[in-house]
Request: fold
Amino acid sequence: MVTAGLMGWVLVLLRRIHGELLTLTSRKLFEMSLIGAGVAMAFLSIFTGVSLTAVSNSFLLQTEVIYTIVLGYFLLKERITGRQVAASLIVVLGDMMVMTGGLIQQVNVGDLLFLTAPLFFTVTNILAKGVMKTTDPSIVVAFRYTSGGVLLLSLQAFTGVERLILGLKPFQILLVLTQGLLLATSSLLSHFAMKKINLSKASAIFLASPVVSAVLAIAFLGERVTLIHSIGSAMIFISVLYLARLRSALRDLT
Reply:
């Protein structure tokens, strides 16, 4: 996360918007610090959950769209139709089929952490959407990963993480920096999307990523395609196309 934060600041400099930092209020800085803390807790939940349960159960992370629909409706006053809810749930089901192949492992405490992480992500995205009304998404992303990464490093300092960092080889350092750049860039794109459209809609569209991962795994790793994977991918593809055509709007509260 720290490297993603550093790459985020590089993007801020490349976009020549660093002058906007001088206009940030103490409230905005506090809100972005909260965003970083929430993201840190989400990643900590994921890392801990992976060590306690089957990796295939990580499909539970896709429940973020459910949290977003509920909180987006009540907190952001987004207009959400029954068809949108149905399409979003179909995407979640499709993700489950693609990621598990239809085989769900025994539920344990790690799965509860997988359910907690997307709640943290949802809350931080709601905060970010508010901050981005007056602050460029690049700055939000840079603060998000810098503050979150520093918090995670602080929590993990007693594990001897400094020895791990000092022991990195040049190739591993390059790999870490590349991952940080990819994370920062993808987050920047997703934040621009969240700024433009309803969060409930954006979160469902983001769930198409497992299909992309599956296609790449089939193309480059030679993984076998199953009927379950194919059906799940088709469900995701059709539902995301439908969601992309929906117009983002807020509820009429008058």
In short: The CA atoms of residues 87 and 243 lie 7 Å apart. Residues 2-245 form one domain.
